[in-house]
């Protein structure tokens, strides 16, 4: 099985540079030999659909846990980049008939739900990377827009992941392939993280920080919560654990970042993770902020990512629409308007 | 951290017998001390809802991956047990506002979607077990109704899990709690598995078998598929791996069974996993059976579970409705009718 380890390194910058046309290359020689490639969990296929025509213009792939959040983001980003649907049309969930993930396309922005936990993200990432390949997308950027528990940061804080760590605080994701355990680096693009951080505005009524993110396979025992169906540890055990995380630079805990980082890095795709903290775990375990507050918090990573997308499109002279090409969104007010409109659809 | 290991054994039959009233006990002393318990991912709470009134009569908790499958099952089981909704009412997704899981209640049967992969199931199981506790449900039985890849069995075969194995073929699930790795047995109720098997009819135009189930954290590389975004192994490596699984008694692969078995066993809840194979992995990797065929296949585990629920209710004299109390469903025809009705709602 030495072929596994010998080939399992991630691409160096030199290797990535070789792909001068910017399209996503697959590290799997089998795909191009197949008559058709069914992306089963997306309800798409390389023969049943013209994937290049449908998705060839995608530049940003934004992912988040729930279908609802990604539908909201699709409506929001449509407004932010001034994208207009043809008269008499509305957004449609492209993957509706997979009954698994939801996908909305707004010009160059693809908004996809990934469910909860690394295995669910893993399935989606394999199929999204293959979709980028079939569609011949150029230099797509992948951004996860999530929620998390903060460690020592207040609810509502926006956190950009510097490094994704697994349960043993390793900066990698563990894979079991043909019964063999391997690790792949869970690296994110540090320059992209800094670019995103720079788009935080001093006028934002909340903090936007960069830090390490712990990725767990469970929400209760796995994150040291005292309020699961089972709990064999004490409050002081829990606090000692959270303090240890904090001493290691961990500022938040979620359940998807290592696989998202490991698979994008392995594919040579630039990626970032931006989450909002729903609580400060040093103060408690239950997620109990009022619904309106939580909705406003969940908009914050979306606002930051929208600023980034506007900036990139403006630099390319591709920002159309009513707001001009300033490349920066000062006020979160428009978000609320779009969210309300979107909720009116429910 | 010795408290972790010392307390982490599962309940013996003697211990379970101590709970003579049959209600679900939590192995967490913290919950009863809390003012309220918010079941965040179900959009329910112990103070905001009267959980005993809403769920106290639940006897069967049926889970499956997608919201759609569980909605279909809810309509199907309603017909099968002769359960009638009050005039002018329809089934409603109880957890709709969680935007994460879907939950439908049909008298004593709760139908819940669990998403894909063990972490997603883990979150749900903690909250479902707590729900059973708050609702004071008596002796609930948990059954996962899933899809899988078969090994040496044809697409459409129904497989009842005897033992759930992890990627290293261990009959346990690995947990990381406060940074420490522990294993809990992934045991299912063998008597329940035999009861389910006995409900397969010689008239069924497909096989129903019992065997070991491999649970993986990925659908592509993790299951030895050649058609993911990445593949560092050859077809002969893959076949050697699948043959090794087969030699170990593994008849199918899915992504949820170890956590489902480990957490129900740890809670002293009787549980089973019934899946239908969507393909024979010895013949290929892609899931490409026609949609109509796949829909009919996905009905098969539901038919078996419905026979079981009817049998139990009939034994208790609780089977109402138009079909009488034979406790056995001979024909899958009624399923199709209900499915069609349900699809007409889409």
TrEMBL record, chains A, B:
- Binding-site positions, substrate: 223, 225
Please give the coiled-coil regions recorded for this protein.
none
Which biological process, per GO, is one annotated for this protein?
uridine catabolic process
- GO cellular component term, pick one: cytosol
Matches recorded under Gene3D superfamilies: Nucleoside phosphorylase domain
**Which residues lie in Polar residues bias regions?**
1-10
NCBIfam families, alphabetized: euk_UDPppase
User: What is the name of this protein?
Assistant: Nucleoside phosphorylase domain-containing protein
Source organism: Stomoxys calcitrans
Name the encoding gene, please: 106081852
């Amino acid at each position: 099985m030495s072929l596994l380890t010998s080939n399992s390194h991630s691409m160096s910058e030199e290797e990535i540079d070789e792909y001068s046309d910017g399209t996503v290359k697959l590290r799997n020689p089998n795909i191009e030999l197949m008559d058709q490639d069914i992306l089963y969990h997306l309800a798409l296929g390389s023969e049943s659909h013209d994937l290049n025509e449908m998705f060839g213009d995608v530049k940003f792939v934004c992912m988040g846990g729930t279908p609802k959040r990604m539908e909201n983001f699709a409506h929001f980003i449509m407004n932010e980049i001034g994208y207009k649907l043809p008269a008499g049309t509305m957004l449609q969930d492209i993957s509706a008939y997979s009954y698994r993930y939801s996908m909305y396309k707004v010009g160059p922005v693809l908004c996809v739900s990934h469910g909860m936990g690394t295995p669910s993200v893993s399935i989606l990432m394999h199929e999204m990377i293959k979709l980028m390949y079939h569609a011949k997308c150029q230099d797509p950027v992948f951004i996860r827009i999530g929620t998390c528990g903060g460690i020592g940061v207040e609810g509502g804080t926006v956190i950009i992941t510097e490094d994704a760590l697994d349960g043993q605080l390793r900066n990698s994701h563990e894979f079991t392939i043909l019964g063999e355990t391997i690790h792949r680096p869970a690296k994110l693009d540090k320059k992209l993280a800094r670019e995103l951080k720079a788009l935080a505005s001093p006028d934002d009524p909340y903090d936007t920080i960069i830090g390490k993110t712990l990725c767990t396979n469970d929400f209760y025992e796995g994150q040291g919560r005292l309020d699961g169906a089972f709990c064999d540890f004490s409050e002081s055990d829990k606090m000692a654990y959270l303090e240890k995380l904090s001493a290691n630079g961990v500022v938040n805990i979620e359940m998807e970042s290592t696989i998202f980082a490991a698979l994008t890095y392995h594919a040579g795709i630039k990626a970032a993770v931006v989450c909002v903290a729903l609580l400060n775990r040093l103060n408690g375990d239950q997620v109990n902020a009022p619904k309106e507050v939580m909705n406003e918090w969940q908009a914050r990573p979306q606002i930051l990512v929208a600023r980034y997308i506007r900036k990139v499109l403006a630099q390319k002279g591709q920002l159309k629409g009513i707001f001009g090409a300033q490349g920066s969104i000062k006020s979160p007010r428009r978000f609320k308007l779009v969210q309300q409109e979107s909720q009116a659809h429910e």
